[in-house]
Design a protein that fits this description.
By secondary structure, the protein is of the alpha/beta class. Among the domains are: 321-434, Succinate dehydrogenase/fumarate reductase flavoprotein, catalytic domain (Flavocytochrome C3, Chain A, domain 1); 512-644, Fumarate reductase/succinate dehydrogenase flavoprotein-like, C-terminal domain (Methane Monooxygenase Hydroxylase, Chain G, domain 1), CATH 1.20.58. It is built from 18 helices and 26 strands. The strands form six sheets. Strands 4, 5, 6, 10, 11, 12, 13 and 20 form an eight-stranded mixed β-sheet that branches. Strands 1-3-2-26-14-19-21 form a seven-stranded mixed β-sheet, sandwiched between helices. 55% of the residues are buried.
Length: 659
């Protein structure tokens, strides 16, 4: 069966198990047509067995162009020096979008082979990595085993994880940790001189390498220091990625770089490169409360979708069970937080106990693993308690542990709570679930390659098959480290056999920055004000209808409300002089939030079961026949909304890359 969405907003989400998809109707024979991609075939028959079928489906005429985009030479091409034809165009061998652990680790490796541009939306340290408290999971204890880590990951992922991917990540993880230590990252050690390994929910052994409760910050520090000292790497901070630059080579889509907006100078800067790595993080800000920093607006996922990359498993949004509930603090923050303050999983791993406001311990009622159950179980349990008791938060108590141990393991949490009059060594911590991590994203193979030639992905923006329906605690930094390294070899191979055409920059029309001069002060102010209002409304819709517990009726309501909200916003802008190629930070973030929200809703509607993070009241059970990834293909360029269309149009049919 096929379900239809409103005209102009159709995202085609294919659910391969039951051949359910959203959007235009397709003939059954389209599943077995001869449509294939020239490059980057996914592995068969595991993680990508369904993808190959989806890639063979008719693609709605998405951005089809007769452009010869890339050819390969029989002899290696030399690395290029970083070139700026003008201040608005820059040429590099590699462009890295994002400055978290995945982007920086990759940049350090490929810089040994060529020039690298690292593009970051804010300051280089402002990434999800920097806010990761818990640690990195890896098998480093003789009592632990790779097999145990594999099984813990598969169970947490509700058996939707790809076992081959899981084994690769769990096997290579220890070496990635040793590399970080060699680069200067400092992790906690026990009295015996060995690494102190913590335990978190879903793990059967102590295997979490950490730096107190600020692990991400320490890893980011070490990597960023190395990047800034590398002469082959240039870091461009305050550059917002607008859209990927692509062309067609037969049936293959080819990536040539990215357009960015320099937020400080209000200038569009174009980066042309042989290889692009997308490592831009997640989309937590589609919800009103998230542990993610403000930069996490789904830019990479939305850009990749518009560039015809395959998207997968977007229904699996992880809500961290324990974000600090400001309402329960003795001294309330004077201003609302930009992002929720995370209370790491390690607090429960160290013996923290969850109580409702009646001081009743409730987790053993829901799961025999109690507080050490996986995140999806704990988050749903808290949500159920809050709804049944009509309360706004629960309590996480670690005060029964020795004071010195608490302050040693959780100094950042203790300090933050003490600012607001709460001593965690004596009082329980008020906590509530908050949007935390996207388990879905841009579909990638074991080397981070996507179906778009020249585009690699790593980190939260990617869907590698590791997390399945729910991410195991502390597997995210691990995945980023492993895939950043695995993407290096195919990236450098492609770079060496590719030569850039330095005249390629003008093959695409350039975005134009919206200014008070072009639109008028009053109009621009009104558009920005409405955008902020619409952003809040979208977040509320997502939390109310696409939260921890869902239903088909509520998802359909969300789909309708999002379409209406997007139409209202776009109509207002375009009536007041906005144009397809205009860009502004607030508007571009909003289009990406709309795009990601629609991807989540469309994927959720396609999965008629409850698995992992996706719980449906009208499909409350796991269905073995539906244990297969959800696949999303691009929407039609002729009917899609602004959020689903790229800003640039190709303006020439000549070769873009030549060897």
């Amino acid at each position: 069966m096929a379900a239809n969405v409103s005209a102009g907003r159709n995202i085609h989400a294919f659910y391969l198990a039951g051949q359910v998809f959203r959007g235009q109707s397709y003939r059954q024979d389209s599943w077995t047509s001869g449509f294939t991609f020239k490059a980057n075939p996914f592995r068969e028959p595991s993680w990508s067995s369904g993808v190959s079928k989806a890639l063979k489906a008719d693609r709605c005429g998405c951005y089809s162009r007769a452009v010869s985009a890339i050819s390969e030479s029989s002899k290696p091409c030399t690395s290029i020096r970083s070139v700026s034809v003008s201040s608005s165009t820059k040429y590099y061998d590699f462009t890295v979008i994002g400055s978290g652990v995945a982007g920086l680790r990759y940049a350090l490796e490929v810089a040994k082979q060529g020039t690298v541009a690292v593009i970051t939306k804010d300051e280089p340290h402002e990434s999800n990595t920097n806010y990761a408290q818990g640690g990195v999971s890896a098998v480093l204890c003789p009592l632990d085993s790779v097999e145990s880590h594999v099984q813990d990951t598969m169970v947490a992922g509700a058996h939707l994880s790809d076992e081959e991917t899981v084994r690769v990540v769990c096997t290579e993880g220890p070496e990635r940790i040793r590399e970080l230590i060699a680069m200067g990252a400092s992790f906690d050690h026990g009295e015996d001189g060995n690494l102190h390994l913590a335990r978190e929910g879903g793990h059967s052994h102590h295997r979490i390498v950490h730096a107190a409760d600020m692990t991400g910050r320490e890893i980011e520090r070490a990597l960023l220091e190395a990047v800034l000292n590398d002469p082959n790497i240039s870091v461009f901070k305050h550059h917002f990625a607008i859209d990927l630059l692509t062309s067609q080579d037969g049936v293959s889509t080819v990536c040539h770089g990215v357009d960015t907006l320099n937020i400080k100078t209000n200038e569009v800067v174009r980066f042309i490169s042989k290889v692009t790595l997308l490592a831009s993080g997640g989309a937590g800000h589609i919800y009103p409360s998230t542990t993610n920093p403000l930069v996490a607006t789904g830019d990479g996922m939305a850009m990749a979708h518009r560039a015809e990359a395959v998207i997968s498993n977007m229904e699996f949004v992880q809500f961290h069970p324990t974000a600090l509930a400001d309402e329960g603090l003795p001294i309330k923050p004077q201003t609302a937080r930009e992002n929720a303050f995370l209370i790491t999983e390690a607090v429960r791993g160290d013996g923290g106990i969850l109580y409702n406001l009646g001081m009743e311990r409730f987790m053993p009622v829901y799961d025999e693993r109690a507080e050490l159950a996986p995140r999806d179980v704990v988050a749903r349990s808290i949500d159920d308690q809050l709804k049944k008791r009509k309360e706004k938060y629960v309590l996480l108590d670690i005060s029964h542990k020795p004071r010195e141990k608490i302050l040693t393991h959780f100094p950042n949490i203790a300090s933050e709570c003490l600012k607001h009059g709460l001593d965690i060594t004596r009082q329980p911590i008020p906590v509530v679930p908050a949007a935390h991590y996207m388990c879905g994203g841009v579909r990638a193979d074991l080397h981070g390659e996507t179906n778009v030639v020249g585009l690699f992905v790593a980190g939260e923006v990617a869907c590698t098959g590791l997390h399945g329906a729910n991410r195991l605690a502390s597997n995210s930094l691990l995945e980023a480290l492993v895939f950043a390294r695995r993407a290096v070899q195919p990236s450098t191979d492609l770079m060496k056999r590719t030569k850039l055409d330095l005249s390629a920059s003008e093959k695409w029309t350039r975005p134009v920055v919206a200014t008070a001069r072009s639109l008028g002060d009053e109009v621009l102010s009104k558009i920005i004000a409405l955008t902020k209002e619409v952003r809040r409304e979208l977040q509320e819709v997502m939390w109310k209808y696409v939260g921890i517990v869902r239903s088909t009726i509520r998802l359909n309501t969300a789909e309708r409300k999002i379409a209406e909200l997007e139409a209202k916003w776009e109509t207002f802008m375009f009536v007041h002089g906005w144009e397809q190629t205009l860009v502004a930070l607030e508007a571009c973030e909003m289009r990406n939030l709309f795009c990601c929200a629609k991807l989540v809703v469309s994927s959720a509607l396609a999965r008629h079961e409850s698995r992992g993070l996706h719980y449906m009241t009208d499909f409350p059970f796991v269905e073995e026949s539906k244990r297969i990834p959800t696949i999303i293909l691009p929407s039609s360029p002729t009917t899609a909304s602004w959020s689903s269309r790229r800003l640039q149009n190709i303006s020439s049919s000549s070769s873009l890359i030549d060897c």
